Amino acid sequence: MPTLRALLVAPLATTLTTALCVLGTTRLPGEEAPSAARTALARLVTDGGAPAAALLAEDASGTRYHTAGTTLGRADHFRAGSITKTFVATVVLQLSAEGRLGLDDTVDRYLPGLVRGHGNDGRHLTLRSLLSHTSGLFNYTADTTVPVPLTPDEAVRTALAHSPGPLGTYAYSNTNYVLLGLIIQAVTGRTYAAEAERRIIAPLHLTGTSFPGARTTLPEPHSRVYTSRGRDVTELDPRQAGAAGELISTLADLSHFYAALLGGTLLPAAQRRELLSTDATLGVYALGVYPQRLSCGLTVWGHNGHISGSYVRAATTPEGRHTAVFRINTDALTDPSLELALLDAEFCPTSTRPPPHAPPTPHAPTASSTPAPPRTPVPARALRPSRTPAAPSASAPAS
How many other C-beta atoms can be found within 10 angstroms of the C-beta atom of residue 97? Predict the structure, then answer.
């Protein structure tokens, strides 16, 4: 079984051999084929080094499914990485709406004495700081000197062995969401997975979405997935990611989830406003989602997921009326600008203006670099958002 340092890496280059790009499109009756999005998807294979790519887009005109490269099934299950964070954040915001916790409550209120040592102090950290990655807590997946943590307590201990960064400064850290998972359990008496199942997955009928726990295999159907060096990592231990990135899902489920979340189905108006507030990070990251400004001036919201063998990006318009989810079956994309190009092609198909110079999509900090968006991601064993050069980067706060 590969270790976490091998699993959660986002290398800048890939040694995968790109096969001849094969394009496929599924269209419902009456649909127009968005050739710009189809062409941009193909570039993830021809220029980005992915063995295969798939895109599912939905809006008022219907549903479109495109593939490029070797075959990926429309109903395939895959590891969604840090998209898990949006599910966890949604549960926390629902608990806030119910008055069972407050976003400005301290971590210590729910996990007394847990966050202590080396300058770390849960008495000074709020739940909001965890949700927005402004706690300063060290990213546990960036520590390659210790055995791979397989439990939340081990992950937290790994992080607390390091001094924190500045409180109030954005720095992507998987530790934040591991703690939020523990807080959900402290408040409800049930795991974050159980709460997400009953609050999100079951009500929305997300039949292809699950939290695998210790299960190392993917449900059927699924395609094979590979590291940047072409090694098959279809099976892995998801406990290494936990509340920061263990989710398994499908393209259709993620499209439905983000449409419901932004459309107001899952959160009251006040909590939806909290969800989209980027005040704490100066526009880079909100609470479990992040904004991406496109060339036509439209801002889409969503998250990415980056875990060994898989990269996925979900985005939707502010009211959830137009969604797009794409995935590749490798953890490496050699040219991050291709992600933004694909989002532009889907959401701004008639735009002729070049993409604006925007902040990179949120990305996770690594052991060797300071997380200051925008920046180019560097290799690390961390779950993190990948980035596209323009917007809080495509993986800029992300996993």
Answer: 17
